[in-house]
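**Discrete fold encoding**
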Amino acid sequence: MQVTRRYWAAVGLASLLAVTALIFRQPLLVGGAGALGAWLLIQQIVFLKTVLQVDNQLSISQTVARKRVLAEDNVSIVLKATLPATDLPHPATLTITATLPPGLSHTDQSNRRLTLDADSLEETSTFTINVPVAGRFELQQPTVTMTDSQGLFKSTFPTRTADTPSITVVPRRPQNLHVGQGGDNAISAFGDHKTGDFGLGLEPGEVREYVPGDTIRQIDWKATARSTSPHVREFEEESDRQTVLFVDHRETMGTGIDGETKLDYARQVALAFADNAQSNQEPIGLYTVGDAGITTRQPAATTLEAYTQIQTTLHDLTLTHASADTHQTADSLPPRKARQAATTLTATDSPFATQLRPYFEASRTYVQRISSQPLYKTVKTQLARQDNTISAIVLTDDKHRSEVRETVKLARKQHGDVLVFLTPTVLFEREGLTDINHAYDRYSDFEEFRRDLTRLEGVSAFEIGPGDRLDALLATQSTPKPTHQ
């Protein structure tokens, strides 16, 4: 509780009366000073009781028009305050002020305030805030400032009854998002997944003869009636396959202009999987990989909190930076091709072969290097902890091809199917299409790598990138080249 200038003026008046009474020996003035002091004390006690009653009875709500908005958008918030029509120990005026979290700005501060008094016990106000950056913001409790009708006391306290809704601000999406294979758009289907196992499911399967261990529920009485022995019908089981996202946000994923980097495009695909999983109530997990290793661990779950956390993590994901000891060396040949090259070089004693032979014979070094790379290591450690069927979805670029290749093989070997989404570097470089023929050669090299991954059993590889740049690149190959005389 704070006292105002008017209170101190009253205290000063009481003191003046007391001093005057002593000087002039006027008992009446002493009585006046005592009465004024007692009145101030009573007013203070009554005001404190009023504060406690208001704190218990005041109801405040905050409602957000949209809980999910794009960065740099405006969103309206409705502030409402209600005080029950009960007799307060002392008339008072209440001022309720909405408090915004850091990072949000408002257009009109006056609209963030409500005033309640004896004549107005319910008020509503709508104000607009601007959300310039992505992230999750939770509104704070409004503050209540209470003053008595005499203007002697003032108390400011946070309300305990107001809602604190949150606003999720998502970055603006990249334009012309393309997901496909070899320039063709691809549409993926989601939902219930066939398991290949039979049991007490929903989809009718085959009819077979009864064997000990089958339950009565499985008996197909029509088939049994048509034969001389009991028969059972199996049903193909369906399950919600667990989806696990592995999102690469290493330094190389920063190629591109602001808002349309490799990471921005990969983020949108990952968010699409997360939103789809939430719509179908399917379990989904998220593991993010930086230059130094894993940065986020969110095991697969189906709760609203899990979906929200995954979406928030993806929206907040930023690039990491490689230190001197985490920079990766250039891609080398896979062990099989390295051994083949080493065998070929062993058959000749030329100086050229002698010089290159040690590099191709070091396939063990290749394995050791790949096993220490962030993406491979993350997939290996996290999938090893999974006991059920997994759809592993890897989102990365084409800068670490050997690592991606071995990671995909590992994921396919351990669990279920694997989807790989790659961002071709040539489509994101600022000057990537300056030399259109060279750019097409680089894209063709990328496409060969993508097809190599797709040829692996249980693996599907896709490209992610700006569709307009890809169309411009592929259009040049449909134009006949000029002939020179």
